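Figure-free illustration: sequence to structure, shown twice.
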Amino acid sequence: MVKKVSEILQGIAAIWLVFVAFTIFAEVTFRNFGLFLGADQIVQNSVPAIVFLQVPFAIVSGTMLRTTLIYEFCSKNSKIIINVLSFLIGMMLFIGIAVGGWTDMIKGWEIREYQGIGAIEFPVYIVRTVIIFAAIIIVYIYASLIIDQFKKKNN
């Protein structure tokens, strides 16, 4: 289930990224005619959301950035300990993001927070929600990876 959810989030991020690319194209193409302005607000607010939507897939697929200089020389039990510690640190980071951003997300929904002046006003509360939602999913993914490490140890 974790893998399926991460794949769905990856797909949403890809679609969002295509939308951002077309927005930039439209901005550049039609800027001289004064027909479209405001892509900077869309890009500025979309990038964090796209990144947070892609992180779960990176974690589940095992492609998250990692240095293996020392890790490759460790025993099986040492690798399990390193993995569990790194997953715990990841959990703490994303719990901090979720808890720290929760109030701003709720406030954003209450006041319908937008950013931008002029042609486009971008709804920031949606981006805040995506970040919190993704952080909670990432915490769940790390918890499931920790459980998997203990299953490996028992086998």
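We now fold a second protein in the same way, so the two outputs can be compared directly.
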Amino acid sequence: MKSNKSVSSKSPSKSVAPIKMKSALTNLNHLVRAVPKAKTAAPKEKPVAKTRSVKPSAVETSHVAQPSFASIEVKIDVGFGNLLFIRGQGCGLSWDKGVQLTCRDQSTWLWSAKSGKDRVEFKLLLNDEVWALGENLTVAPGEKLDAVPIF
């Protein structure tokens, strides 16, 4: 019987340990619940402007109308002291008074202007007096025309 008592005395000690554990866990849970929760405010985000990514080429073609230039390059040696003029219709040209072309070198003359949407009809003149032979010439917006007039 002594052996039974020793076994029975060990039994109560085994059952005591889980009870202590349970009460310890209960106490810990009580402590955790007692700690006030820290207020965690969400960081305020700065207002961001709404932007849209657009390719530069798309901006140029769809939103901003690029000016078209009509340009004329004339190849002729008009001689020392002579000038080349243009008269016509469109881009501010007039049939009544000519606009002087820019001399780039001995035999190359240049003229260009914003042409908008309309074609430019023109004729070349030597010293704004002598008309070039042949029909009137035309240049479209954004187009470059090379001309060799005969006087």
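Summary for the second example: The mean pLDDT is 73.
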